[in-house]
Predict the 3D structure of the following.
Amino acid sequence: MRPRAADRDGRPLPYSAVGPRVAVRGAGQAPGGHEARGTPISQIDVNAPSVARMSDHLLGGIENYASDRAACARLLALAPGTAAVVRDGRSFLHRAVRVLAQEHGVEQFLDVGFGVPTRENVHQIARRARPAARVVYLDTDPLALTHGRTILADDDRTAVLDRDVRDTDALFADAEFTRLIRPDRPTAALFAAVLHCLPDTSDPGGVVARVARRLAPGSFVVISHLVSEDADFRGRVTGLMREITGGNWGRVREPAEIRAYFAGMRPLPPGLGEIRHWRPGPDARPVGGGGRGGGWTSWGGVARV
């Protein structure tokens, strides 16, 4: 087999979905060598960390730049268990999608702030139980959009939209959204690790409520959000993330604030709480073994609207 090409930092480039691809990072290409489809790569500032790319690094991915890895190092110095918390969040999302598809027959999903695509994405998980599942992926990060559109270019039951969820009317009127999300069918709106990126001025709870009101009866909302009971820690991490992202960050919140986002909904068992305890699989971290990520954890649940 031909050796994998490496990027400028010496990290191996991924193979594309259709076979090996040799590429170097440069004009018109993303970190993994993918060409842009509909999103100008010139929009990607390689010197400015991105939350999506930072998450990719913390998950062990390679679709990130040196600036993202340096930002993660600063975050890990403050909260050493952060990578485990990020992995918990991804695992929770997978379990929630699996449960909703298998046990509740959900075939429509809206993945808000999906980030850089990984090996296991929402449409892949849902289709194991519901082969006809349709997914709308939503983000505004140029790299996430580029990779998503490249990987899903030939999948007509998915769409990757460059839209801000705060503009609910525009989202629900989007032609691709209306093509895939039927208003009379149950839909799962996934707010996984995204609401803490919204400042209070954007009213994250109001965003969830507006989306939930537009969904058909029998729909679901999935939320995971970074929280801490320590006010000093919340302030320090929030300050660091705002600095790192140039202000593109909300804040670490308290669990009670996230509980309020579920107002008027009916949580599925086992209820709301640390997401690593939500129907954990065999790979879950022990309850008593370093559960919090150096001061914070991810909190939320799954609820019927």
